[in-house]
Amino acid sequence: MKSNSTISIALATFNGGAYIQEQLDSLASQLLLPMELVVSDDGSNDQTIDLIQNFSRVAPFPVKLVQNRERLGYGLNFLNAASLCSGSHIAFCDQDDVWLPQKIARISTILQSGSFDLVAHSAKVVDRQLNWLGANFPDIHLENSLNESDQSVDVFWPGFSLTISQSLLSEVNLAVSLSSDKANFAHDELICELVGDRSLYLIAEPLALYRQHGNNLIGFHGAMLARAALPKKS
User: Fold this and answer.
1) What digits encode the pLDDT tens for the residues 161-209?
2) Closest CA to 42 of 7, 83, 12
3) DSSP 3-state percent helix, strand, coil across the chain (nearest 5)
4) Between the chain's N and C termini, which has fewer beta carbons within 10 Å?
5) Tell me, which fold does domain 7-227 have in CATH?
6) pLDDT (tens digit per residue) in 39-96
7) Nearest to 6 by CA among 39, 40, 33, 29
8) What φ, ψ does residue 74 adopt, rounded to 5°?
9) CB-based contact 156:188 (threshold 8 Å)
């Protein structure tokens, strides 16, 4: 495993003790290790903090844990973690998923090939035991870089599949600072709205396991597929 990545991982946690160890182990098993892991915890009262602190002692990369004094909520908690990252790009990480070993390496290769502000990838939808449920989300059919004319107005890629540049993060943070409804937003929805004419790249290969366990904050349903995939090209 190598550790020369410029990609930081932003992990937002809240009472994630049931599944977070598998996610942390998958981060440590990356073929290309991240530059760092930054965790923003939103007031967990289960074993989440202990698991993260134990992981930080053995992790093959730096781990920074921030415990929020007040609840930030889903979107702001992710942005808090991302804003503390020092890498050129930030990969958002859900506490209950599992990353496949090649994820950071694949994304890093794409970033080295061009100046992209956003990279999104496919993922396999799995059950509690990580058995594939026969669907991918997002279900990206065509691997390619996109420009503004290729993008659908209502296209959406979920946060766990996104890696964004510091420049795009700054724009997102500015939009949040100017908003009158900071508590009720999803960071991934805002990122997809603001990507605009910025450069982005879609990876068709599934690079994570998107776990469905019945207590997902958002979760997967079939209707989401239409928003997470561009039309197939002949």
Assistant:
1) 999 999 999 999 999 999 877 667 789 999 999 998 889 999 999 999 9
2) 12
3) 30, 25, 45
4) C
5) Spore Coat Polysaccharide Biosynthesis Protein SpsA; Chain A (3.90.550)
6) 999 999 999 999 999 999 999 999 999 999 999 999 999 999 999 999 999 999 999 9
7) 33
8) -50, -60
9) yes
